[in-house]
Amino acid sequence: MILDFLFFLFAGGAVLGGALVITRKNPLSSVVFLVAVFFCLSGMFLMLNAHFVAAINIILYAGAIMVLFVFVIMLLNLGHTTWSDMRGAAAQLISGSTALAFAAVATRALFFEDAPPLAGRGSAELVAASVAEQGVIASVATPLFERYVVPFELTGLLLLVAIIGTIVLARRQAP
Amino acid sequence: MSAAVTYGDLALVVSAILFSIGCAGVLLRRNAIIVFMCVELMLNAVNLSLVAFSQQHGVDGQILVFFVMAVAAAEAAVGLAIIISVFRHYEVVDLDRFNLLRW
């Protein structure tokens, strides 16, 4: 089925891109592959009925945060790095086994029949039904501005603090 | 695993793999900017699992993703400002050189 093919394409692209992000020597190549990962993840969000999340993932992550990374890499002139910053064999062994152990524990439902199922067994069409009833934006916006309005306002405060903190930190100190 | 494998289950597997990759990257690299990118990768893996769970448990998971993204944006701005301000002192972004507080 074409949808299954697309889903596996996005999933494979995300995993492959993630592997390339942590193995490239040049930070700019890492940024490009990370943007590719974000686009693949947005595709998966679309297929999981999270259209709003898919849109802001591209706008915010791929559009704003990654541009900030590229800007800092160019500002610090790190775009043509030749030194390899990979740690030694011992650290590679430790980090590889840590990652493998985490992945094995998190996906153990694939290998053991008696492990708890991955996603639980709720009604799989819950969000799909709410999207069909209220539309894509309203199904997210209604609870956001009713139940979650206090955290929403606190997010604005957090961003204000981040703006002021960034200006204070990155400002050139007076001689 | 039962026969009815949904996209949500597959997305959770992909999320676990991506989180492991990001974790390995944080442990493996010395370049502060790449470590930072790996943290963003881990945040996005968590976002994927939140969206996968919201399939079955209501739209609240997607709202949590919204908050995670706002915090990630704030964290990226402050973190990169810290990297710039450390770079002014050391002229490198090598994490092993930032050992002033190391015991």
- Chains forming the largest contact: A-B, 83 and 70 residues
**Which structural class do you get from the secondary structure elements of chain B?**
mainly alpha
**CATH fold annotation of chain B:** Helix Hairpins
Work out the helix count of chain B.
Answer: 3
Question: Can you walk me through this structure?
Answer:
The complex is a heterodimer of chains A (175) and B (103). Chain A is an all-alpha fold. In chain A, 73% of the residues lie in helices and 0% in strands. Chain A folds into 2 domains: 1-81, NADH-ubiquinone/plastoquinone oxidoreductase chain 6, subunit NuoJ (Four Helix Bundle (Hemerythrin (Met), subunit A), Up-down Bundle), CATH 1.20.120; 124-175, no CATH class. In chain A, helix 2 packs antiparallel against helix 3 (51-75). By secondary structure, chain B is mainly alpha-helical. Chain B has a single domain (7-97), classed as Orthogonal Bundle (Helix Hairpins). The N and C termini of chain B lie far apart (48 Å). The interface between A and B is large, with 83 and 70 residues.
